[in-house]
Design goal:
The structure is a homotetramer.
Chain A lengths: L5 E8 L4 H11 L2 E11 L4 E10 L7 H14 L3 E6 L4 E7 L4 H11 L5 E8 L5 H6 L4 E3 L6 H15 L3 E4 L8 H6 L4 E5 L11 H8 L3 E8 L9 E8 L6 H24 L3 E4 L2 E4 L2
Parallel strand pairs in A: 5-6, 5-8, 6-7, 8-9
Antiparallel strand pairs in A: 1-3, 1-4, 2-3, 9-10, 10-11, 12-13
Helix pairs in contact in A: 1-2, 3-8, 7-8
């Protein structure tokens, strides 16, 4: 994209004329739509829209110009609206414990320019992955649990605030966040759970899955909420497993699924493709 | 859908203001959009749109009223436009040879009300599946090849014309259509090829796949064109296979994939979700 | 297979020398092994084996001859052993309520010679699918629930006994069996559950899945046990779903998965490929 | 595995008594079989076997003891036999050009102890990935093409020889090897092709796939042979793609599939699970 593009996302009560109003405001501003998706959820009565456009007019348009052009529509339909320059990368803070596969995958994708985010640092309750993080010339915040969860979470929050991160990604961070922290990060914290939720919540899900004798394992990327492993699901994927595999093999196979599923969820969130619809998500992938 | 719904599909050169114009015309007619997708192909410069809406106004609106309301927009953007009552089921003629799995799946889905089509008959160059077809109280046209392909295809065309079918589905019909017949049915004939195209074109694809030692087999539903097995792909699906399976097992496993893939392609076409974009298809699934 | 083949399955405590003993007994009887799998579960200490062989010797060998040849080995390792003529098709009774998709798929596969079973009849608590069953010239046992579950299950048991069925398949049979009936059918009754177990046990799983906002749905074929939806899993499969699909679409998509998963489980059971290993199954597919 | 284990692989003409002979030789040596698979290909008349066992006897057994115990059987059936200590990791040399995703995945899996190989170095015709390789404290052999392919390949061969590598992995190495080099590495060189072979051989397969309008893309790990992209396939995997994705998105999605497929193939080869059966492979996964 050599030209500037903007990403517009809208969420409001569904009604006649929304698309017409938004599209007309954009057309009047000479915006050329390159990508657009909308969805009206008949169950909740909510309307969701994501539109990518670029200016085409003689008048050079900036983000704020478009925001101004859309303001009457936003007011009329009482929309919750977000408008971003597509070139502006979302700042992301990663959190990890000792399993480095998700972290390694995200850092590689980011570093090779494939993942449109701006990684601003890595938080960990262990020091094991410092060397990997430092190879990428990123700040590594070692926040051990020694002084108790409250103190550690306070430092975690400070790290998020100081980094300017809009999104926190729990890339196999093996600590349960307090309700308070969950609420603080609502809608801007993604976790990878190493099972096909809602099966096998909680600890050692691959061992649970093995004991139950499943023939397919999976992983789930979801927004963190105070309700453990119950947050809105962004993405899931599965993989077949045979009877000859032991729990360790489930763990190993699961790592590939986790890495891919989490990276997809982070990408979609960073591209403003994911919107909350009650306990569900709308994903304009 | 207790209320009437309409399905609008549009194809035209991409430009600023198309969505605004279409959506405004619909909003002015008090149409409530329940589903909408559009796509601009930057490579071909073409724009595609599919919108489902229902009337909400005091004024009772029929299809022709909406068509009239959209006419100026259609003219302005030189659109190819199609507008259908969603309750109107597409008439479909099925063609089959001796393998009944795709036919059986389509007929069951249709009969149980899951597939929104109106099956108007079955054509076959063999008589083997007559009893199955007649159980469904459908006309069975036995059109053997005895008098040569030209004569048989003439009768096939007559059957299509007489049935009023808008779509012909080759549900494992093991005859290669002549170029002439392909052109006659362009864009309104779907074939299921029993391989993951473009791999293994032509005859006995599962045997080719087995000889090549693939670890995954697949099936492909595509529009029929004069270029054998080269038509625009609508849907594909794959399934893993092990070294211990012989070609007959590939064939057996393939049957399930073929049935599912073909039924999906027929559904999407019948719901006006598939649009041609050069050699590719846009599928608003 | 123009020649006769035999299928040998063995289950015993694992030990040194089992394979040697079995294979030697077979070799001494001039049996040519065409397929063989074994598995020792280190967690349970159990050994499982499935071997397919054909006689090659001058001496004509029947099933009982091979059973005799194996008897010393069976005794020595205290094996639970089963030996079948591969040409002998397992008698199977199907049970269904009103959703005919699994039944239709099984009957078509059986009728076209692809599923190596001998369907001996269909039981249903409703009369809706009688015409389909009778087209296949099979006995249809309409066993309504009018007189209560106890009376109905007694008639169900009688139907199983009278038919000589070795396997009962609940092909979307929407009645919960009593504990007594479950125990009676232990290890010889397969159910299809329309979710990816252990997620969404119980009623209306697709609606549960939709409410939870999953991105993948699935189906599970398992042995029936008194513990509802907790029986050993034979096979599972999944399919992606988008936010734009409502619960009815989940149901529809699920039907294809259910049909395929159940048919696979029935095939594997009928070919003696499935063995119980505690709560898990060993599947030599 | 705290105890020593051995991996036995056998390939020979199929016959009565092979399993009996091998298993008896092992049982006589007090070997406890923990994993075993065999397969007789009726088409080629070849027999393949892979058995993992551990010594249980009082007499301490080493690899050579078991080899001696098996020698008579190997001679009798004219077997090609291989016997390895399972703890002995295969030495592997990686080759790469500029795309680092497969390399990064393999190195991470190896470094975290998940991939049972011993990486002995990385060869590249570019210098771009040196820093990544050196982080892992591995030798990086920069072998540019400046002096022509013949000279470069000579140095490549020298690097293989000097490293003691038993396997060379082309992890997106974008040079076509000469016939001579292919023959030199026959059966000990794995390539990842970024398409679902045999579709889209040669260059820019994702662009080919996009132009053809496929709905599924894939990747293929195969042994390198002089016949480009025609070598025996070890593993394949696929992923759905939509019409809204451009060739660059195909490339990006493909990278995840390539990484996972190649790592699986390398693991299976390193665990002696892959055997050549003409143009096909037997994979005891």
């Amino acid at each position: 994209m050599t030209q500037s593009h903007f990403i517009l996302t809208i969420r409001c009560k569904d009604a006649v004329g929304i698309v017409a109003a938004v599209a007309s405001a954009l057309a009047d501003a000479d915006a050329f739509i390159t990508e657009s998706s909308h969805y009206g959820d008949e169950a909740t009565g909510l309307f969701f829209m994501r539109t990518v456009f670029r200016p085409t007019g003689m008048r050079v348009f900036r983000r704020d110009d478009f925001a101004g052009a859309l303001a009457p529509v936003v007011g009329r339909f009482e929309m919750s609206m977000d408008l971003r320059d597509a070139a502006e990368r979302m700042k992301v803070l990663l959190a990890v414990s000792k399993h480095g596969h998700c972290l390694n995958h995200l850092l590689h994708q980011w570093h090779s320019g494939e993942l449109p985010i701006d990684v601003v640092g890595v938080v960990s309750n262990h020091d094991d992955l410092r060397r990997l993080v430092e190879w990428y010339e990123l700040p590594f915040h070692h926040l051990p649990m020694d002084d108790g969860k409250a103190a550690q979470e306070a430092r975690f929050r400070d790290a998020i605030a100081a980094s300017g991160a809009e999104l926190t990604v729990l890339a196999r961070y093996m600590q349960v966040l307090t309700d308070d922290m969950c609420r603080h990060l609502e809608g801007r914290c993604i976790n990878i759970h190493h099972s096909f939720l809602p099966s096998f919540k909680g600890a050692r899900p691959y061992h649970q899955a093995h004991a139950r004798g499943v023939k397919v394992v999976g992983a789930t990327a979801h927004y963190v909420t105070a309700d453990l492993d119950e947050g809105p699901i962004i993405e899931q994927e599965t993989q077949r497993v045979g009877h000859n595999l032991d729990p360790d093999a489930f763990v190993r196979i699961g790592k590939d699924i986790e890495s891919v599923v989490l990276a997809r969820a982070v990408r979609w969130h960073a591209e403003h493709r994911v919107m909350l619809d009650g306990r569900r998500t709308v994903v304009f992938a």
